[in-house]
């Protein structure tokens, strides 16, 4: 399955916005552009979904639309949290992204290969989480339980993504799995930076993994079928 000319053109546009977002955040005089570029990443993916909407079934299309829309809400909440230092905005942003992860998991389940179990991958994810919490649990304090619940959801999403193997085209499987792993890394960096110690170049590290994660997941899902679906079922 190859990329169309539109796929390539959109990818170039997306990565131009992506680079602008990364570069303008730390630059005095250009930081306001960061507040435009960050939501524009998800808005551009919504536009791409609209153009490609007939390449996936209506149910997946709607779930993907809601996942991106709620991602935009979550991004906006966390964006304003960085300005106001209001912890409630961060919490609501995290809740929004938890809903996004659940929606992605439901989308991935629709293409699950029932003959796969991927226990080795699940074990690897669990060991990663256990090691992470063994380091962070004292720093999390009253946020320990919420962060554990969030970790459970993102692990579930990664595991379900691994179950799509041999049931979707290889490109779709690889893109989605790469995307979910990048989302896991991005969220790990957020937790470390927020609760353990401030990371050098934290914004670049977090946003680069997050921006790539959303790109790979959306492209991967939209490449999972070879059929054009009914254009009247929008």
Commentary on this structure:
The protein is an all-alpha fold. It has one domain (5-222). Helix content is 77%, strand content 0%. The chain has eight helices and no strands. The protein is globular, with a radius of gyration of 18 Å.
Give descriptors for this structure:
single chain; 234 residues; mainly alpha; 8 helices
**Largest sheet descriptor:** none
Q: Identify the overall geometry.
A: globular
Helix content percent band: over 70%
Report the uncertain regions: 230-234
Question: What structural class do the secondary elements suggest?
Answer: mainly alpha
* % residues in beta strands: under 5%
Total domain modules = 1
Count of DSSP H/I helices: 8
Q: Using only CA atoms, what is the Rg? A: 18 Å
Mean pLDDT: 91
Oligomer: single chain
Short description:
With 234 residues, this protein is mainly alpha-helical. 77% of the residues lie in helices and 0% in strands.
Layout of SSEs?
Elements: H1 5-24, H2 31-51, H3 58-84, H4 87-109, H5 119-140, H6 144-162, H7 170-196, H8 202-222
Helix pairs in contact: 1-2, 1-8, 2-3, 2-8, 3-4, 4-6, 5-6, 5-7, 6-7, 7-8
């Amino acid at each position: 399955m190859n990329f169309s000319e539109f796929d390539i053109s959109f990818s170039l546009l997306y990565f131009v916005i992506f680079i602008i977002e990364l570069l303008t955040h730390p630059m005095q005089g250009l930081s306001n552009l960061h507040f435009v570029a960050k939501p524009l990443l998800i808005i551009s993916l919504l536009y791409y979904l609209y153009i490609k909407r007939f390449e996936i079934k209506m149910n997946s299309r709607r779930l993907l639309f809601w996942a991106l829309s709620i991602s935009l809400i979550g991004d906006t909440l966390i964006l304003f949290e960085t300005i106001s230092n209001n912890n409630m905005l961060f919490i609501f942003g995290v809740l929004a992204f938890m809903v996004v992860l659940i929606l992605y998991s439901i989308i991935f389940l629709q293409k699950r290969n029932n003959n796969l179990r991927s226990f080795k991958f699940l074990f690897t994810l669990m060991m990663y989480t256990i090691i992470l919490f063994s380091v962070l649990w004292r720093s999390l304090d009253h946020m320990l339980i919420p962060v554990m619940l969030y970790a459970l959801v993102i692990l579930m999403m990664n595991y379900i993504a691994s179950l799509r193997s041999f049931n979707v085209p290889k490109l779709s499987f690889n893109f989605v799995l790469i995307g979910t792993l990048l989302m896991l890394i991005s969220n790990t960096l957020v937790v470390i930076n927020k609760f353990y110690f401030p990371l050098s170049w934290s914004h670049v590290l977090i946003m680069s993994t997050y921006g790539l994660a959303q790109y790979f997941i959306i492209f991967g899902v939209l490449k999972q079928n070879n059929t054009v679906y009914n254009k009247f079922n929008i």
